[in-house]
Amino acid sequence: MDFLLMIVPVAITYYTFSYGLWAWRQGNRGGGIGVFLLAAFTLALSVYSLFFRTSY
């Protein structure tokens, strides 16, 4: 069931990463790196909260 919950964060990460790639190709290197970091943080936080955090 947790894998189904990952569909939305993966879609958000893909969209954010593609925007970062577009920004990088437009010459905005700093913005592209920042957006890549944001995409990685989004995916890492989602994976942590769904799979590694203990339930109360």
In short, what is this structure?
With 56 residues, the protein is mainly α. The protein has three helices and no strands.
Please tag this protein with its features.
single chain; elongated; 56 residues; mainly alpha
Distance between the termini: 18 Å
User: Count of helical segments?
Assistant: 3
Q: What is the alpha-carbon Rg in Å?
A: 13 Å
User: Could you give the count of β-strands?
Assistant: 0
Low-confidence stretches: none
Q: How many structurally independent domains?
A: 1
Strand content: under 5%
Q: What average pLDDT do the residues reach?
A: 90
Biggest sheet: strands, sense, closure? none
Helical residue percent band: over 70%
Identify the overall geometry. Answer: elongated
Structural class by SSE content: mainly alpha
Note the run of SSEs as H and E: HHH
